[in-house]
Design a protein that fits this description.
Layout lengths: L3 H12 L23 H15 L16 H13 L3
């Protein structure tokens, strides 16, 4: 089972957030709030999510709303796992 902390930790590692990751919750904004999260980081995150959680993300499934908050990324991964994707 994937936990929110798994997603938070993965994003923290990818963006090199260090201790800042401890203050991040599900409602923490990702887009526009974390300067390290740019378009290249989004692509890297998608690839990392696919690799770590065994999901496949189609291009048309990705929009700004998926990356709005840390919790939205978590929900997206849970939905993909539940769908068997």
């Amino acid at each position: 089972m994937v936990e929110f902390d798994d997603i938070r930790q993965l994003i923290g590692e990818l963006l090199l957030l260090g201790d800042r990751i401890e203050k991040i919750g599900p409602d923490t904004l990702l887009v526009g709030s974390i300067p390290e999260f740019d378009s290249m980081a989004a692509v890297t995150l998608i690839h990392a999510l696919e690799e770590r959680f065994g999901i496949w993300v189609e291009d048309d499934e990705i929009g700004a709303e998926v990356f709005e908050t840390f919790g939205k990324v978590y929900e997206f991964v849970l939905d993909k796992i539940a769908a068997g994707a």
